[in-house]
Amino acid sequence: MNVDEHIAALHGFMRADHEEYIAQVRGWAETADAEGRIAAARQHWAHVRRLEAMDKPWEATPLAA
C-alpha cells in the first residue's frame, strides 16, 4: 500500500466516523424535539450545524508534490 492509499483509507475512516457522530447528535436533537425539550433541541441542532460546517480533510484538494 502506498502513501496515497493510506491517506485515502484514513480519510474514509474519518468521514465515516464524522457522519456517524452527526447522525447520533441529530438523533439527540430529534428526541429532544419529540419530548418537548426545546432548549436541549436547540443546542443539539446548533451542534449538528457546527459539525456539518467543519472543514473536512477528506474534501481538501491534495497538495502538489
Structure write-up:
- With 65 residues, this protein is an all-alpha fold.
- It has 2 helices and no strands.
- Helix 1 packs antiparallel against helix 2.
- The chain is elongated and about 50 Å long.
- The chain starts with a helix and ends in a 12-residue tail after the last helix.
- 5% of the residues are buried.
- The model has no long low-confidence stretch (mean pLDDT 92).
Quick overview:
With 65 residues, the chain is mainly alpha-helical. It has 2 helices and no strands. The protein is elongated.
Task: Bin the helical content.
Answer: over 70%
In round numbers, the mean pLDDT is 92
Gross geometry: elongated
Low-confidence stretches: none
How does the major sheet shape up? none
Number of helices: 2
What is the alpha-carbon Rg in Å?
16 Å
Structural class from helices and strands?
mainly alpha
Ends apart, CA distance between termini: 18 Å
Q: Strand content of the residues, in percent?
A: under 5%
- The H/E string reads HH
Number of strands: 0
Topology:
Blueprint: H1 3-34, H2 38-53
Helix pairs in contact: 1-2
Please describe the structure with a list of short key phrases separated by commas or semicolons.
2 helices, 65 residues, mainly alpha
